[in-house]
Structure formats: structure tokens, C-alpha cells
Amino acid sequence: MSAWQKIFPRWHVFFYRLTGGMIGGRMAGQTVLLLRTVGRRSGKPRTIPINYFPDAGRYVVVASNWGRGDNPDWYENLKARPAAVVQVGRREWKVQARDAEGADYPRLWELVTARNPYYAGYQEQTRRRIPIVILEPMLLKNS
Length: 143
Prior knowledge:
Layout: H1 3-19, E1 26-27, E2 30-38, E3 45-51, E4 53-55, E5 58-62, H2 73-80, E6 83-88, E7 91-99, H3 104-115, H4 118-125, E8 132-141
Antiparallel strand pairs: 1-2, 2-3, 2-6, 4-5, 5-8, 6-7, 7-8
């Protein structure tokens, strides 16, 4: 991972929080939320900016990892501890994460690839099935 790939997300999170998403709430035409997980090994909070897609009151995120052969760390953190927090603008929600399965997966794959065709290319670059994660809001905070 390059130094830029390590530094950019930190700056993104900083400006998103500082401005309530006015800076960093959109990236390359996509909507962005902040996802706070707990590190599966460290037990420390981890926050990343990530593109999301609204779906029936839920947040849908894609664990593409840019088409790499392994899942992103945030996804592995959610598998270990599915409770997380999302921030959209200035509002935060507790969420429960789960993988899209069954009929949900193809429907959501169509939704996300229609809005961001890069995901289809990422899928072509890897042998793993790119996970789609549904983040179900649990408790409203700061509303």
C-alpha cells in the first residue's frame, strides 16, 4: 500500500467530520459515508470513508478492495463484529452489518454496478465474489 493510500483516507475522514460531509460527502460522483468498525485484532476503532448506496432505509456498501484478491480490512472487521456506526453528513447511526445473500445479492449487484460500473471491472480482476454488505440502522443518534 502506498503512502498516499494510507494518508488520503485519514484526511478524508478529518474533513468529512469537520464539515459534516460538506467536504468528502461525495467523491467521483458517489455518495460517501464514514464507517466506524472495531479492529478484529487490535480492538481499536477504525473509521474509513466509503461509497454507499441507499436501499429501503438501509446503507449498502461494496467490499471491492479495488479488485484485489483479498477482502478489505473493514469487511473482515465487520465479519468479526457486525455492530458498527455510520456517519452520513452530521448524523450518526448504529448499524448491524450483514452480507447480501440469496435474491438480495443479484438485485443489489445490479444496483451498485449501474451507479458505479467500476465494480464490474473489479469483479473481473479477482476470483473472489465481491461481498455486498447491508448496513441496517439500529438506533438513531444526533437526529
